[in-house]
Amino acid sequence: MNFTHPFLDDDGDKLREECGVFGVIGASEAAAACALGLHALQHRGQEAAGITSFDGTEFYTRRGLGHVAENFSTGEAIGELPGHMAVGHVRYSTTGGTGMRNVQPLYADLASGGFAVAHNGNISNASKLRQELVSKGAIFQSTSDTEVIIHLVATSRYPTMLDKLVDALRLVEGAYALIVTTPRGMAACRDPLGIRPLVMGRLGDATVFASETVALDVVGAEFIRQVEPGEMIEVDFDGSMRSHRPFGDSPARPCIFEHVYFSRPDSIFNERSVYESRKHIGVELAREAPIEADYVVPVPDSGVPAAIGYSQQSGIPFELGIIRSHYVGRTFIQPSDGARHAGVKRKHNANRLLVAGKRIVLIDDSIVRGTTSMKIVEMMRDAGAKEVHFRVASPPTGHGCYYGVDTPERSKLLAGRMDVEAMCAFIKADSLAFVSIDGLYRAVGLPGRTKSCPQYCDACFTGDYPTPLTDLEQRHAAEAQLNLPVDPDPVS
Amino acid sequence: MNFTHPFLDDDGDKLREECGVFGVIGASEAAAACALGLHALQHRGQEAAGITSFDGTEFYTRRGLGHVAENFSTGEAIGELPGHMAVGHVRYSTTGGTGMRNVQPLYADLASGGFAVAHNGNISNASKLRQELVSKGAIFQSTSDTEVIIHLVATSRYPTMLDKLVDALRLVEGAYALIVTTPRGMAACRDPLGIRPLVMGRLGDATVFASETVALDVVGAEFIRQVEPGEMIEVDFDGSMRSHRPFGDSPARPCIFEHVYFSRPDSIFNERSVYESRKHIGVELAREAPIEADYVVPVPDSGVPAAIGYSQQSGIPFELGIIRSHYVGRTFIQPSDGARHAGVKRKHNANRLLVAGKRIVLIDDSIVRGTTSMKIVEMMRDAGAKEVHFRVASPPTGHGCYYGVDTPERSKLLAGRMDVEAMCAFIKADSLAFVSIDGLYRAVGLPGRTKSCPQYCDACFTGDYPTPLTDLEQRHAAEAQLNLPVDPDPVS
Amino acid sequence: MNFTHPFLDDDGDKLREECGVFGVIGASEAAAACALGLHALQHRGQEAAGITSFDGTEFYTRRGLGHVAENFSTGEAIGELPGHMAVGHVRYSTTGGTGMRNVQPLYADLASGGFAVAHNGNISNASKLRQELVSKGAIFQSTSDTEVIIHLVATSRYPTMLDKLVDALRLVEGAYALIVTTPRGMAACRDPLGIRPLVMGRLGDATVFASETVALDVVGAEFIRQVEPGEMIEVDFDGSMRSHRPFGDSPARPCIFEHVYFSRPDSIFNERSVYESRKHIGVELAREAPIEADYVVPVPDSGVPAAIGYSQQSGIPFELGIIRSHYVGRTFIQPSDGARHAGVKRKHNANRLLVAGKRIVLIDDSIVRGTTSMKIVEMMRDAGAKEVHFRVASPPTGHGCYYGVDTPERSKLLAGRMDVEAMCAFIKADSLAFVSIDGLYRAVGLPGRTKSCPQYCDACFTGDYPTPLTDLEQRHAAEAQLNLPVDPDPVS
Amino acid sequence: MNFTHPFLDDDGDKLREECGVFGVIGASEAAAACALGLHALQHRGQEAAGITSFDGTEFYTRRGLGHVAENFSTGEAIGELPGHMAVGHVRYSTTGGTGMRNVQPLYADLASGGFAVAHNGNISNASKLRQELVSKGAIFQSTSDTEVIIHLVATSRYPTMLDKLVDALRLVEGAYALIVTTPRGMAACRDPLGIRPLVMGRLGDATVFASETVALDVVGAEFIRQVEPGEMIEVDFDGSMRSHRPFGDSPARPCIFEHVYFSRPDSIFNERSVYESRKHIGVELAREAPIEADYVVPVPDSGVPAAIGYSQQSGIPFELGIIRSHYVGRTFIQPSDGARHAGVKRKHNANRLLVAGKRIVLIDDSIVRGTTSMKIVEMMRDAGAKEVHFRVASPPTGHGCYYGVDTPERSKLLAGRMDVEAMCAFIKADSLAFVSIDGLYRAVGLPGRTKSCPQYCDACFTGDYPTPLTDLEQRHAAEAQLNLPVDPDPVS
């Protein structure tokens, strides 16, 4: 059974982080640690999982559709993955479509030996690079943007593997957190802006890399530090480590949505507790958009930390006015009579006796299409709520992401189509407010957003993309020639 | 993928309700409503599910191991179950062992026509009755105690199906909430003490029965009332309904653990909000066992409502000091080095930056074996907590349940082996307190426990079993003859 | 992959024997021998297979849809079936419908202990007996006629298991070859007329029973003798054996179609080589229906022995004018253009260069519906055959079988609808001839058919049924009341 | 269930043809025809099957382990393969190992568009070519030798697809019968010596290519002619066809073992009926190695045509002394007691009553390891045969094949280790004779073998390999350096 994202509505009304990566070198049962680590990153990608291990001689790969636990929890599965080094991946299908051949890690036999890579992010000029490679005779086995990196490495004229990899990455534009394994060891690196996260830990003598610190916790590793934006770290089998900065220095722009929703609340992102950030967004919201009410009710589970912050700041009691089922994922056949909103109720049910006759402040992390928000407001009213005020723990999401997050096209984003007043009417709330962009920056510990050089990538809120978007521009140009309607966002 | 109970530790350190039942008569797509209703009862039994429908001529049955969504979410599955009446069941395996032939509803072709039954509870003289039936030539197809009821009905000399069923149930001892379907309609009944729950609702012209009101909510049905203890309700295809009280009157003893843990917080049990009961247990706990601390931290998710109550009563802030993974269920292969307590961390991870240096009150719903409580206390300390105080939202669980709940034998119940002080030492908390039995009764809206005639079944706390336990006594007698060590609990 | 009968056309244009049984007692790995034996009987039933073993304490059962090799060839499968006694079954679904619960051996826990039975044959008053049992409270778990026997045994008042079994069988009418296992040993018996086959062999110290001698050959057992019609043989675990004749003496009527088609040619049936019988049918055919031709061509594989006989008697060379594929069973999607008769060609293809311009005598074992015969004649003509003469190694099959053979209703039997001349026109042959009923009896070593008391059951050719057919008569009576058209055959 | 080759002994005591190919262009449901055609070629490869179709815009591929019928018989499967052009493949795993990624057709997105290829044969310099390609940055996705061809095409500098393909094939050495599809149409070609077979047919307006004519018969296509050795035929979507001879002329050397065993007897190979060839080998054998005996008995099924020829020439009656089971393929767990030779008996059982006391001439097509021949001789003796004379319808097989046939290494070939007299002693026959190499050539219609320029490839009998064997030579050279024992055969 493939459960979808537990925070997800059935109609996919959330932004979706597309990947998590985990690597370990120097551990006696590397694949077992890798499986546990990926399991802790399951919320970052639930469609498929894969692990590649290396036993000093050969590489072993096992991939599967579905959850980590479905594919990597048995001794048999781990037994197929011997060795002291392993790299793993969980994924959604953003670029590349579904299907087993796109499940990472991707592996290739190069002239220099085996090469396995796990990639979180999105290469925004992958189509262009792929076209060039194919025209020179390269044969792609997947539709994944990650395979472009492998072919660039395979055809690089540089002598060492590290040089080949740097040579390849210089041609690549966009966001990437990569873990690479070769017969000589492991390398981990983040793109120059550090858009996607990657951290490093220590597990006995072994070195561990992971998308989030929660994965270090679960495998019992100690958190050392994050891999810095633009940094490439090499680790050998003897444990020796070298850090490189091949792309020079530039100010970092990590993804602020990791604080809002993607990372687990018990992770530490960009040197700050994610739980703390979320609670403080609630505090900021209570300051920016106060309201008189009886209860603060989170939309579970992602709205809970901000709701606690809102409650503490406002003094309005925190109560579970919506109960969340733990058994979600499938769309059921709807009986034709009755069962209004059975879909949303299957996941979220009103706590009627609590809510009836009360003024409710609902707290959710974000609004994407708005359809689920509308249903939840209606559910509160059906349960007898006197007033329903909606507070959102992020600014309006009006722009698509091209850095490895699955966003609907702009015309389907509620905030891409209307202003706050219209949105409030659409979801039928008594009032609606979003935290301001500066409030969000304050909540993550900064004085506010530095317009000239923002400290985070916040393109989904501001449309301010920190890299070129070559493939998108080419597609727009082609569509313009064909007179196709062009999604207005974002390159203009 | 079969997820186990989401509230469950990997080592099963919870009591487990064993079943949920759902029935609908008079709906145009009865099986689809039944599937949705069972899905809402999934927390009551996750090992297997089954639905039997009737289309006016024939009965159709589909059963499957695993979750409702895995077996009954597709149009194909529902298409195999035509008709206006359907009854369904989710189960754990208490009595009867695992295996498809024990998955309910059980069905038989009797001389009077088809007969399907879904049963929540446990018949405490099933072995004795079975022996008698087999000696007369009955051939059993399952090892389920429920099949005894069918054979008693099949061999009853009474003329009508209702009389046969009453005749059968008079021979039966223990706990049962039953939904029965025959070519003439549906009957629902609870044992004379009403130990297990059963409620009735209305969905358009259709009548619905379910273990909990949450299932009515999810299918969009209106909650009418509970089926009373000892009541049998017949519903015909024309919607006419008759209530019977074949067993006379006796004071009811519904299971108080439904308030503590089994029912969903958004259900109404015994005419009271379960969420409210749980929050009030927290309030009672804060009164009975106050402590100075920085944060009230629930063991998620079952400890949350009591923690909110404790926080509101004590004024100590409610915080998420433990983050729960949504992806649980499988035991993973443990890497041999590192990964201490990876098992418990896979499910519960400390929110380190919050907890470090703080005094924590942990709130959990119950302690069964104590092993998980011990690990969670240790996890808090590893995360730097200065003090860890444990508060339990139920009295000590010192006795087994023989009414359809999966309990370890008494010698494995922590409260069956030691007093509170020893338990505190075992789990290594700075202090430990349980709500008192009277506090629990107060929390569910009563003045306290009436010792002469308790208003609930609370045998797991008190050892006061409200029915004879024939099979258990016979087993003890047989073991005594063999000089086998006898579990001291409970018949002596 | 479930291959259907290898001799079968896709449209089922053959009579189908419905079962094979195999039992062994006293062998150290009884289930392994049983699996091999069933594999050798696979041609008698390919829909499902099952084995029940007994290890001195408990019975173990494993059943599966499909072939023996798919379900019982692994060590894991055999490991689930420990013990020195095992009984197995392969089946088609004649009476009882498909589905796992009808797969034999059937097993029941009786008051006297476990009871497993494997049955080849058909009980012609099963419906009537079942009705009576259900009216007394019996609950059936299958729709198989065999279960009637178990309930009759369960409710028999006789003291010993053997007496109970005899008591049960006295109420039963029709054809049966049974192997029964209980905690006390094994019993094997044939109905009083011995319609279905059963033989006994010795494998070291173990005793073996099987439907055909080929199963003895394959497991390495020595053929001792057949179980006599009306005989019941008991074998204990110490190897002691007792023969009973509980039904008195009556002249035997074994099924003559075992010689024609059902048994493997390397089996010995009714003390005669099946291969020899088939070759002699060919000899008789050549005498009764000679023709001038260039080649004798068998319809492979079942027509081969008769074709050799025809060739040797007539002097016309035996040639493979039709080549049979070894990969049959599935119906393929037909491309809409081209591919005329691809269905039949998938199985049988003309050996064009041989056949072109030649006069061909085709030899097949029988004609049921005639559709395949028609296609094969056409295939010979398409390949350029100058003349096609059809010779059939059995008399016209004009009547249904009610003794465990799957026959179409009479109106679909070609010989039930038309005479030989019309049949010849239907299949478009240049000439058509069947062996005479007396020729068939001569081929099996008799002087001819004794009309007053035939030596075999030949009801499918003659309509002369050797037992009452109670269920059929009741059905006809019921249909007559409803004025439904009644299939004329056979009770009138 | 994966049945292995029906002619195969359980211990693989046959040479195995490794592939069959089928292609169709211009048919409205190309994939359905392709599935049927592959089904008719199933005997050429049973491990896996695949089909690639093209609908004018996109290519669709479906592959599966097991038989064609298991993977391609349903409407659903065919529905996934739309379009008017399809190419398919059945395979054993000779070069390349097992696993889905080696299942053909192989497909690649080249700069010039999609490219799918199905290949029967073996490239004897594949390792060397692969090494060169990888060193230039090529990334292989399979271990199949066929992928070398695709990479050579992808990196060819020639402008048109046809030129690229010819350019690639010029670098390739060994045996190949190829069907290639591109967005522009289909191409079929055979290596310059025409070692592996390929024929062309017409199905309405569509053009069909197949390994054997039997596949044309089954889909209802008319046989046009064979693709000539060294010929490349292009077919466009409008049906226009062009024949090329890019490799110049050289005398052909088709594989003579197609006549002996690989092809189906109803196929036409190298302009001659395979059935006729096999019968004539029997005639030659009877002339070269006559014997006095009672019966000629074929080892079924592959020995049947030669046995008919031997019988007709010698006048000794042809009889089925060995009966073959239709249910083969799995190795069963052997019971420890009894069941001597149960393995071989599971497939072949003696027709005891026929054989007892008789002098038997056994006819088989070939002897590879000799183990099965030994067991069959022993089975005849166990059944009471007075004399057992073995006649083999091919010369002694003393040399490995490197052209796409799975042969054991030379030291395991019986004829590689001993002379005829020793072989006779090994299999314990009363006499043993093989047809002479000239007798074999006479049987296929030639005056005898032309030593200077043999008309067929007969390397497995003579060691006369018609091409260089580069990879083998390199491996031998490498092993010689390591002082490993080198299999003496064949390059020296």
Automatic annotation (TrEMBL), chains A, B, C, D:
EC number: 2.4.2.14
Binding positions ([4Fe-4S] cluster): 255, 401, 457, 460
Active site: 19
Tree of life domain: Bacteria
Residues that bind Mg(2+): 302, 364-365
Pathway named in the protein's UniProt entry: Purine metabolism; IMP biosynthesis via de novo pathway; N(1)-(5-phospho-D-ribosyl)glycinamide from 5-phospho-alpha-D-ribose 1-diphosphate: step 1/2
Annotated CDD domains: GPATase_N (cd00715), PRTases_typeI (cd06223)
Record GO terms (molecular function): 4 iron, 4 sulfur cluster binding; amidophosphoribosyltransferase activity; magnesium ion binding
Record has Acetylation as a keyword: no
Family matches, as PANTHER family: AMIDOPHOSPHORIBOSYLTRANSFERASE
Role noted for this protein: Catalyzes the formation of phosphoribosylamine from phosphoribosylpyrophosphate (PRPP) and glutamine.
NCBIfam families named in the record: purF
Record protein name field: Amidophosphoribosyltransferase
The species this protein was found in: Croceibacterium atlanticum
